[in-house]
Amino acid sequence: MTGTGDAGHPPTPPGSLLCVHGATLIGPSGSSEDRAVLVDAGRIRSIDAEDELLCPAGAGRLDATGLVLAPGFIDLQLNGAFGIDFTAAPDRVWEAAAELPRHGVTAFLPTIVSSPLSTIAAARRALLTGPPPGFVGAMPLGLHLEGPFLAPARRGVHDVTLLRLPDLQIVADWSPGTGIRMVTLAPELPGAITLVRTLAERGIVVSAGHSAATLAEGIAGIEAGIRYATHVFNAMPAIDHREPGLITAVLLDERVTAGFIADGVHVAPEVLALAARVVRPGRFSTVTDAIAALGMPPGTYPLGDLEVTSDGVTARLGDGRLAGSVVRLDRAIRNVRSFLGWSAVDAVATVTTVPARLLDVADRHGVLAPGAVFDAVLLTPELEIVATFIGGRVVHAADALAGRLTDVGAQPR
To answer: Mind listing the pLDDT tens digit for each residue in 101-114?
Structure first.
């Protein structure tokens, strides 16, 4: 299936070499200064201290002195971008994917809100068909289905007429191999626990969200296989000191990774900081929950069958309810660093090692190591995007890259 290997990575001529030198490298064990990374035919051949690795003759050279090199970012919840809504137009997912490297994103889960089953089928076909010829961009790793098994009382902007009770017949052929990577559901619904077990056994990441579950119901869902929580605090009852509810269940259980929309609107920075003291960097997942308005000027954009208005800061329905976000993933991790006082290493982990481990793709995504595909992002120390690499090629470059890159044939967008 597309997204489970190197499909979609640009063809890099055999023997083509790129040497990125002088960078501060961010990895799972922290950061290392003055490193050199040698990329051969799109994969990392070696990583060494600067004085131990000389760039071979004929290799492209990138002087990354004073910059940070990190794995490419992974967004686990993206409803759309650049004017394209994945629910309304799933066949256009590759168009948006081609532009996501602007934000440092090299892999993502296209997210489909509660929809007719025919829409889910169309989205699966779009992924399984694969990218168009010559595609270069972020790789969809499978669909995130946010619904239709949601609690009506906590549906948010989801259409109540499209919600369903958990049904094993509906999910009979759902698996990562058939395009489904994550499913958000309410664990308190009748039949949900059986559904959680079934999906988890197939390797699908089951997430709790849009739920009114009690603490006991949340714990039962986790015991059955829930391993993620979708936009914690949003579309869930607030924590009560006598009825702690789902939020407490997911924050306290070390098996669960907690997803947060770090736009400073969906969750107050102070509350985000409070939650972070419990989940710590290893279980903290930063997502955008962005809609088609991402990367676009203020205006009205689709979200499924809805029309959502963006002012460039928030996305809302006509009645004022939030309907996804317009935050870039790189902006979100800068927010995480600022709101939580975390290091660059910890902030970057929330969009690299944490989601890669959750999806069980850490051998291919969210990692910089010998043998891995060179999907990476070059950042300033303030975590501003300088360049994004897909399969060893520069596919996005900011002005700050000028004069640093030499002898490389690939042309950035």
So the answer is: 999 999 999 999 99
